[in-house]
Design goal:
By secondary structure, the protein is an all-alpha fold. Helix content is 77%, strand content 0%.
Length: 128
Amino acid sequence: ASLVIGVYALGSFLLGIIVGALSLRTPLQRQLAIAVAVIALTTLPLLFADTVPTLALAVFVSGVAISPTFITAFGLIERHVPPAMLTEGVTWVTTGIGIGIALGSFAAGWMVDTFGPQNGFWVSVAAG
């Protein structure tokens, strides 16, 4: 499991470095919409992973959209939240991410316990 989670982080890291180095001219709102759409699409390969290597590949693909989404979302916060409230704005988003992760873990665990291991990935697809 740690190898697969590491591959997820690697995908996020690599695209985060690339996106961070680019000077994109697309408005942040559009970048966020694209990044969220990519997150949704990249959950689909998880449904077809039937071995650890294919799971690692699917998780790598799924991870590539994470950093660009966070970079864009926090950029939007920085631009739209008054400077005196920036810490609070970032805190609300970070808290929401944590709650989403906790609820997703709960839901995926319930799906696995109720319907079997492969069905836990449907939670990611539904969330996407």
